[in-house]
Give the backbone structure.
Amino acid sequence: MNPTATKIWTLAEVQSSFQSTIMGTLGLVIEACNDEMLHLSMPISKLTLQPFGLLHGGVTMLLVESAASFHACWGVDLNKKYPVGIEINGSHLNSASSGHARAIAKVLRRSRSLIVHEVEIVHAESERTLCVGRVTNFYKTIKRE
C-alpha cells in the first residue's frame, strides 16, 4: 500500500497494492468492499493447482488470509496502526479444478485492537462452498520516536 496514504477507502487503492506480489501473480481481484465485508476473486489455473489437479489448499488459505487482512485495512489510518495476522484456520469442504474461487470475508467482531473475520471460499460457477475459514488480525500501533 502507498506508505503516504493515511486511510484506504477505495477498491483501486487496495487493488494497487497487489502489484508485484503473490496476489498479483495469481490474479486476485477485489470485487466489492464496505465497512462489513470484502469480496475477492481469483481464477483457478495451473498456478493454483496441486499435483492431482485440484485447487491447492495453501492457495485457498492465501485467499482466506488476503480477504480478511485487506479488509482489516479498510478505513484504518495506516500511519497510526496496521493489521497483523495472529490466527488463521480453515476447513476444506469441497474441491475445484477450474473456474474461479471467490472469497467472501465478513466481520464477526471488531474492537480497537482486534478484528475477526469469517471467510467463505466459494466456487463461483457452481456456488459450492470450498472452504470456510476464520482470521484474527491484531492492530499493531506504530510508535513514533
Remarks:
- The helical segments are 11-16, 22-26, 57-73.
- The longest strand covers residues 129-141.
